[in-house]
Amino acid sequence: MAIERRVDVHHHFYPPQYLEAMKSVPGREGGGTAFPGVGQWVPARTIEEMDKHNTQTAILSLSPPGPRMLDIEGNRKLARICNDYAAKMIQDYPGRFGLFAPMPMPDVDGTLKEIEYALDVIKADGIGLMTSYGDKWVGDPAFDPVFEELNRRKALVYIHPLAANCSLNLIDWVPDALIEYPHDTSRAILSLLFSGTLARLPDIRFIFCHGGGTIPMLAGRINHSGSNRKFLDRAPKGIDYELRKLHYDIALASFKPSLSALFEYVPVSQVLLGSDYPFSSIGLSLKGIEEMNLPEATVDAVYGGNAARLIPRLK
Q: Which of 53, 74, 163, 302 could pair with 282 in a Cys bridge, judged by C-beta atoms 3.0 to 4.6 Å apart?
C-alpha cells in the first residue's frame, strides 16, 4: 500500500522550561515529569520515533496541564517560550514539524495576544487548548472572546483533554488518564455544542483527541435524550450535524472497538492519525488502522490526506 505522507497530529514536545514548570505539579493530570519518556525528551528522540514509523511530519503540542502552572505573567512568558522553542524546531528540521501553539488560558487577554503572535509571527498551524480550565470547560461564555477571534481567523483548534478539578483522584487506584481524559473530551465537546459555540462560530475547525473520547459511543444517546432539552435551539442544524463536522485523532483510540465506533459515526474525512507520543507510539496507531482492513483510499486519508486538507504547510 503506497502512502504518500504520514502526519501525526498528536505529538508532544517538552521545552526545558516547561519541564521545569511541570515539576511543581508532579503527577498531576498525567503530566508529571516522572512519566517515562517525558523528563528525558529531546528533539532527536522524537525524530527517531518518526523515522522508525515512516512518518514525515508531526504537529507539536503540549501535554497537560499546559502553560498555566505559574502566575499570570509567568504563564504568558511560558507560553511564548514554548512557542518560540517549537518555531526553532520547525526551522531546524524543515518539513518535519508543525505546531498547535499553546496558550496561557484561562487568561483571556493573554491568550488573545498569544494567538496574534502564534498565527501572525511564527506562523503556527493552529492553536492548542485544553478541554477545561479549573471549573470551566471551553464552551463557557467566559471564553467567548477567544473563540470569536479564532472564528474570525478561521483557525484550526486542537483541544487536548485532562482531568478536570472536580474529577481528580476520585479513585486512588485508578489513574485519572484512563477514564477522566476521554470523559473530559466529551464534556468539552458538549459544552461547545450546547453553549451554541459550534453553530455560532462555524469557521473554527476543531480537532479533538483520542477518537473523541466517548462521543462516538454516546452520540445516539446525546441525540435522542438531548433533542427535547433546553438549549437545543443553539444547535439549529441538529446535534449529529455539529458532532460529525468535528475532526478526531486516533491517538490511544486505535483499537477495533473504538475505531469501529468512530468510523461508523463520522465521515472518513474527519479522522486523523495521532500517536500521543511519548505516552504512546506512532506504531500502535498504525497497527490499529492496519487491523481494520480499510480501503486504501481511507488509509491514505487518515494517515495524511485529511491533515493536508487542514494544514497548508503540508500541501
A: 53
- The single residue listed with the C-alpha cell 498504525 is 286
pTM score, two decimals?
Answer: 0.94
β-partners of residue 268 are none
Return the beta strands (E) in 204-279 as ranges.
205-208, 247-249, 271-272
Q: In this structure, are residues 70 and 82 in contact, taking their beta carbons and an 8 Å threshold?
A: no
What tens-digit pLDDT sequence spans the chain (315 residues)? 445 689 999 999 999 999 999 887 755 544 566 677 788 899 999 999 999 999 999 999 999 999 999 999 999 999 999 999 999 999 999 999 999 999 999 999 999 999 999 999 999 999 999 999 999 999 999 999 999 999 999 999 999 999 888 787 788 888 888 888 999 999 999 999 999 999 999 999 999 999 999 999 988 888 877 666 767 788 889 999 999 999 999 999 999 999 999 999 999 999 999 999 999 999 999 999 999 999 999 999 999 999 999 999 998
State the Cα–Cα distance between residues 174 and 55, nearest whole angstrom. 33
Q: Which residues contact 312 (CB under 8 A, 6 or more apart)?
A: 125
Q: Which domains does the chain have, with CATH numbers?
A: 7-314 (3.20.20.140)
CA distance 273 to 58: 10
Q: CB 45: neighbour CB atoms within 10 A? A: 13
How many other CB atoms are there within 10 angstroms of residue 175's CB atom? Answer: 14
